[in-house]
Amino acid sequence: MEEQVRRLSAHYGWNLSEEEIRRIAAEAAVQDQVLDRLHRVKLAQTRPIMGVFKSRRAADTSKRRQI
């Protein structure tokens, strides 16, 4: 991870110190673990939440028309 941060720093001219590179790489590793957990969640049988919002919106618009 540190090597990737070094390459980005060189490419974009950020001139990061070794301490900053280590800190950024450590934070990226933590975020990678969080994202890995999210990728493991099985959502195949889950209904999208937008279905709930659409039905709610339809009810709200019918109330507006009555006014």
Task: Please explain how this structure is put together.
The chain is an all-alpha fold and 67 residues long. The chain has one domain. The protein is built from three helices and no strands. The chain is elongated, with a radius of gyration of 23 Å.
Number of strands: 0
- Counting DSSP H or I runs of 4 or more residues, the number of helices is 3
Uncertain segments = none
What gyration radius follows from the Cα positions, in whole Å? 23 Å
- What's the average pLDDT? 81
Task: Tell me the fraction of residues in β-strands, as a range.
Answer: under 5%
Helix content: over 70%
The coarse overall form would be elongated
- End-to-end distance: 59 Å
Topology as a string of helices (H) and strands (E): HHH
Largest sheet: none
Count up the domains. Answer: 1
Structural class: mainly alpha
